[in-house]
Write a structure and sequence with these properties.
By secondary structure, the chain is α/β, with parallel strands linked by helices. The chain has 16 helices and 8 strands. An 8-stranded parallel sheet has the order 1-8-7-6-5-4-3-2. The structure holds flavin mononucleotide.
Length: 340
Amino acid sequence: MAFLNPLDSLKSNPFVLAPMAGITDHAFRSFMKKNGASVVVTELVSASGIKHLSKKTFDLMSFDSSQRPLGIQLFGESPEEIAEAAKVVQDRGADFVDLNFGCPVPKVVKKGAGSAVLKDLVQLQKILSKTRKAVQIPVTIKIRTGWDQNSRNADEVCKVAADEGILWVAIHGRTRAQGYEGFSDWDYIRQVKLGAKIPVLGNGDIHTAEQALQRLKSSGCDGVLIGRGCLKNPMIFLQALRLLNPDFQDRPQTDIVKIYLDLFEFLKLHCEDRVLTLQLKKFAAWFATGHPGAALFRKTIFQKNQAAEILQSVSEFFGSIPETFRADTASENFLMGGHG
Ligand SMILES: Cc1cc2nc3c(=O)[nH]c(=O)nc-3n(C[C@H](O)[C@H](O)[C@H](O)COP(=O)(O)O)c2cc1C
């Protein structure tokens, strides 16, 4: 197996696909990889689900070599369980293990997993140390800035991570208490990066390719993660790469219907029928963000049950739109919840 070091990939392409539960599955990761994402990461996978050999859990870890370098993200509360799960991740051929310490969801934090670990750096150290000892592949972590505004500690987390030989720390610039309210604090991310002895990736509220480049440069980060922005505009990675490097050859597709049909091919290959129609509806709705008539289009699309009907509506709606994805969508609330 030819492992790829994800940190090496950031040198030529610092734009990483952020993990998103229910979204960054096998199909979407392949699609985004084709469209310029550098490193990709699965959604969070339960270490306990791996221990209990849950089929659903193992399905989440499916990938192919076109996605490399690929990380499988784990969450859990027990250092031993996480370390054992990391071995399984390594055996499945992932390039790295990513640990989720950013999930704000009550069900997860109540058990002491996700962002709850940010409140207990001794526990954090234990998890990192055991996981590092369990595998040879790199280990990365994804965090929030802290539990709440009064206890922001991403700088201390970076110290622990650097001491434990973690490859990088990705920071979503909100506290756990914020959920998805307010804004990602890129000034704070910049400060943490300045003082860190470990590579730092910044994340949060990148809606356009211009913002991706600006955030990368102004924060001094080693890379940036893009999540919701690529659901509204899946060409954002290629656009950002062209801004970063004017000699970059691949031109982003501008025809939304063609892009959607391409995504459909990936979804068809990897999703069962029920999931396929659900994903088709969600992506159609997200692609419409910022376009006149989007509200009515979304209503129509969610009443359809067959892929053919959905594709028909997509062709009609986007076929009549002269321009491509709307750039200026930052003012609209968009997917205000998730696992990181
Ligand atoms: C629907 C959804 C699901 C998410 N699932 C995960 C996840 O499984 N693991 C994780 O670390 N972060 C998860 N996140 C958080 C994102 O990776 C990212 O940190 C957050 O959305 C902020 O970045 P953005 O503004 O670019 O979307 C999720 C976010 C959303 C919106």
